[in-house]
Amino acid sequence: MQRRLTVDVVGCGEIAQIMHLPHLLELSDVCGIRAICERDPEVLKGVAERFGVNSTFTDYREMLATAPADVLVVLTSGDHAAIIRDALDAGMHVFVEKPLCYSAEDARDIARRAEEAGRTVMVGYSRLFDSAFEDLKAALDRESGPVYLRAEAALPMDYYYRAHHDVVRPLDFTPPDRAPEWGGSWDHLFEEVLNNLVIHEIYCLRVLTGIARPEILTASDILDRRGIEATWRGGDRHVSMGVMTLDTVAGGYVEEFRAVTGTQTHVLEYPSIYLKSWPAKLTRSRLEGGSLVSSETLGSFVDPFKAELDHFFDVLTKGVPCVSGAADAVDDVETLNRLFAAAKAAGERTGHP
């Protein structure tokens, strides 16, 4: 009988409390949480009490120095390169929330280190684990002719999509009226828009089209770097993408993938991730007997965050191939950096400061 894997967690913010920590407890037959790390001491104390964790740290390096677990789950925001390297040096497998890291050089280095160490580094690409996405991919894989894919997202300030969840917040927390410093800088476009939000569209489009390194045709920022519009292609797969952030809840949440083939149109619509157990919806339209026929399929009611953790531990314990490993994420990091460079160059040509 295989022993339970031990897990250390770094980052105990809202996404960790709403998604990952509850799901890790549900996996008690294959893993157990050894320790958690969080910089805010009040959040750390509250989360430890709520999830029954006895070992707590405010510095992940101290946590890794004290008999590290088999697995490190990285749920912090921003660039994860240093944490992942330290975990691999400690001999750990890693599950990391997107993005893998910010630079293509770091991504290639992490993938190389993981392979040499015989360790799994899996990136949390939750959209891939919805059954509606799998249905769309299967349909496109059967297409032998040209396909046009359009990814569209209008993403409002998400606090009011998650405010109903019971989470431990810092003592000085106050609900925001609108997103702070929303847009207006290239750093915001790179870090928040591209690496935190657009990353979902990038990995989905890579998997749906099979284009790992797309030929970027156009790229430009939207509304003072609040979003990005881009087009690319690979073979007979043509792609356009528009992702825009909003500083209010105006307009609601929109995230969809539209695939047009010679015979059908498929539309995959995702809800906000914070509306747990609200499934994605796949709509198909086609001509049949001279009439336009449409059908709808709902995705699984299983939370994709739960499904991706199930998959991660299946990779470790059953040897199944990892669908979102570091080697795949290298392509996504490179694409994000190329899109940013192209959009910034276009902005400079048109007089953006």
From TrEMBL:
Coiled-coil annotated residue ranges, if any: none
Matching Gene3D superfamilies: Dihydrodipicolinate Reductase, domain 2 (3.30.360.10), NAD(P)-binding Rossmann-like Domain (3.40.50.720)
Domain of life: Bacteria
Occurrences of domain Gfo/Idh/MocA-like oxidoreductase N-terminal (ranges): 7-125
GO molecular function: nucleotide binding
PANTHER family the UniProt entry points to: BILIVERDIN REDUCTASE A
Protein name (Swiss-Prot/TrEMBL): Gfo/Idh/MocA family oxidoreductase
Species of provenance: Actinomadura darangshiensis
